[in-house]
Amino acid sequence: MIHLPLDDPGTADHRSPGRFLWWMARGQWRTLAAGACFGIVWMGSQAVMPAIIGRAIDEGVADRDGRTLGWLAGLLLAVGLLQAASGIMRHRYAVTNWLVAAYRTVQLVGRQAVHLGGTLPRKVSGGEVVAIGTTDLSHLGQVMDVSARFAGAVVSFVLVAVILLQTSTTLGLVVLLGVPGLMLLVGPLLAPLQTRAHRQRELMSHLSNTATDIVTGLRVLRGIGGEQVFHDRYRRESQTTRRAGVQVAKLQSVLDALQVLLPGVFVVLVVWLGARYAVAGTITPGELVAFYGYSAFLMIPLRTATEYANKFIRARVAAARVVRVLALTPDHLDPAEPLPSPPVGSELVDLRSGLRVRPGSLVALVSEQPHETAALADRLGMCAPEVDDQVLLGGVPLSGLTRAEVRRRVVVSDTGSMLFSGRLGDRLDVSGDGRSVDRALRTASAEDILDALPAGLDTVVAERGRSFSGGQRQRLVLARALVAEPEVLVLVEPTSAVDAHTEARIAARLREHRAGRTTVVTTSSPLLLDAVDEVALVRDGVVVAAGRHADLLAGHAAYRRVVTRETDPEPVEAGR
């Protein structure tokens, strides 16, 4: 497995698809060079076979020299064995080059996704990333795959041209100039093919986005009766994508046909010229057979060259997509000179809203508009898209610390958190020690989920945890956040999808579990609010009241309306 650091110059300076492909090739030059060497030997062995056969006809069969015929037959056998062995190794290195290129692309995009964090979905669609991991990496691997055969094609073409020039200058020039001429005839198709392939790739990305949205929101669509609307939309987009694919296939079919037609015409021309020279006595019958063999062989380098051009174009389109993702930068960059790290157990302060969270306390944020507290929670963990130096930990702005330190000390678990597919125990044990999972499951009141699974923690989680109900997923996500045991834990509506009895158990256990560490919860549930140390009421992004739940409930009308859902508004007293 190849590991590439994120700060590698190659990953940071991809300004064009061509530069990216060159960087990829340079990174695996050893396997590319080995594949090219075996490709040259493999195709070179085929190139000299007609010469050996021609000599065998002239010096062995025509001259009735059995010894020479036997020697040349043995040489032909040795060359055939060499071709077979080098062909096996060439194929092995071709597959290796494909796999290395494909999985290096996966590593690069995967590391970039981790590097970007929450920035990724805001700057690029999920379908775009999915298409890179399915279609684009295949095209990038294919251009590395065909490179070994392309190197052999170039060398064998030169070798055959030299042999032909030594035998017949006219035929040698026909071959030497004819093959590049045929390539020029194919050239005008390559630019339109690239344009159409780029268009198809765009449509495939949009189609992947639509499919992802439909699958993600299928339950909601069924609830509102919108299945048919989105089905029709997907159908229209898929037909547009299909038509774009047909346009690509039309050009591709013409290119494939020319790969057969042009070499065929070329072979006929060379054989016709060779036959005329043989009749005239300019060349021997053996040389005529050799010329025919060369002409038939040259179809292989020519088709390989056009195949390489075709795959290189597709690889450039794919590389453009990868470059676009690699060029993205996170919303928050590490400062050039990070500030000194605040001590453990420091106070968390948001100057913009006026929120102050004492070390080791359990604080709840309440708002009539839940998105306000959710946005405040994102700011507390430096997860908001804008750079904010108004959030302080121990008097030090979070923006002055490295992202790695902020992520280690402050964890935000919001309602969009999901479970990844794989073994359940591994998905929950983010700390890696395996000791705190059971305790976290108990705090999240998720023991019944585990008991209902035949394999327990060894159960394989389906994609996005779809095999669990909404309340089960929410409790498992809460347990995963608790396992991390950060210094500051920010939970956004952690019990919105569970019943009252389960919520009461979670509220009672959360304080004990997080004793001595800072916890912030956004909620309007009385069960949770009654269990916290302090409640902060947020209005228009500013804390307008703070205190214990019972005190605010008795003395602050606005707070009471939010918590108890009163419909008869009461005037808010000044200063409250």
UniProtKB/TrEMBL annotation:
The keyword ATP-binding applies. Keywords: ATP-binding, Membrane, Nucleotide-binding, Transmembrane, Transmembrane helix. The chain crosses the membrane at residues 32-57, 69-89, 146-165, 171-191, 260-283. InterPro entries: ABC1_TM_dom, ABC1_TM_sf, ABC_transporter-like_ATP-bd, ABC_transporter-like_CS, P-loop_NTPase, Type_1_exporter. Its main location: membrane. Residues 323-565 form the ABC transporter domain. The keyword RNA-binding does not apply. It is found in: Cell membrane. It is a multi-pass membrane protein. Gene3D superfamilies: ABC transporter type 1, transmembrane domain, P-loop containing nucleotide triphosphate hydrolases. GO terms for molecular function: ATP binding. Pfam families: ABC_membrane, ABC_tran. Residues 33-314 form the ABC transmembrane type-1 domain. This is ABC transporter ATP-binding protein. It comes from Nocardioides abyssi. The lineage of its organism: Bacteria, Bacillati, Actinomycetota, Actinomycetes, Propionibacteriales.
